Amino acid sequence: MKTAILYLAGEKHCPLTIPFTAAEDGTDAVNWVLDRPDFLEQAACRYGAERPDLLVLEDGGEARGLAVGLARRLGGSCLFQVRELWREESGLLARRGAYNSNLQAVYRLRTPAVVTVAGRGAPGTETLENAAGILAAGRGIGGKQNFQRLAACAAALGAQAGATRPAVMNTWAEMERLIGQSGHQVSPRWMVTVGASGSGPFLAGVRAERLAAVDNDPNAMIFWNADLGIQADAGAFLDALEKELSGT
Ligand SMILES: Cc1cc2nc3c(=O)[nH]c(=O)nc-3n(C[C@H](O)[C@H](O)[C@H](O)COP(=O)(O)OP(=O)(O)OC[C@H]3O[C@@H](n4cnc5c(N)ncnc54)[C@H](O)[C@@H]3O)c2cc1C
Asked: Atom of ligand 1 at shortest distance to CA of 137?
């Protein structure tokens, strides 16, 4: 699919990852860097020359304004905070959270489509939603102290700490750490879960490029979804990770 990624000059951006289901769909994506102040005119002009089917921006106030204006000008669809994109015979489809992310909605987009996706943010402004790396704790982490150890390891790795619902409901982790259908939708480059079984509601919020799972049960469901499975006790895994990070 012919795709253009639009960057607004003057803002600090990390390269955007387009959430295509099929990895090869993003291989011919081209970058457009637009200068101030006439983003819309420049984008429309480049569209006329290159005619991509899909135009992608990092989600944000200014980007949303541009996305709406551009989609209107080009006669295509506009959708914010897209989590996943794929093609079917009927056309280009996109998934995003709806009703405060309590539901996942699928949209059929008219091309050229202009969409925004979560970015990585400028250094120091990472949240769970735009984090490049996440360590996530489930019930198997066993308690608040271990969650705090996991959060410290995440910080040392420049990553964010997340949690499943039991970890939050037990007050081991703050509510804002919740990942899943009723929490944050995350799409990091890498994610490691520790003591999370891989339930449907949790995984509904996870779209990691690489997922590793630590669980002491060899039959844990999460191993079916993970790229790497580590059968280990959560505490022992934390001991090893802390040792590795401290360099001793
Ligand atoms: C409407 C609805 C919405 C929901 N929304 C969410 C949501 O947004 N997010 C969410 O997370 N859940 C959500 N849930 C809850 C969800 O169904 C699961 O109950 C929950 O995700 C399970 O969390 P868990 O994996 O931490 O716990 P469990 O399923 O209990 O898994 C614990 C895992 O830890 C392992 N373990 C135990 N001890 C150790 C140890 N010492 N070392 C290593 N591993 C160990 C076990 O083998 C197991 O695999 C929702 C449920 C409903 C009904």
From this structure: 26
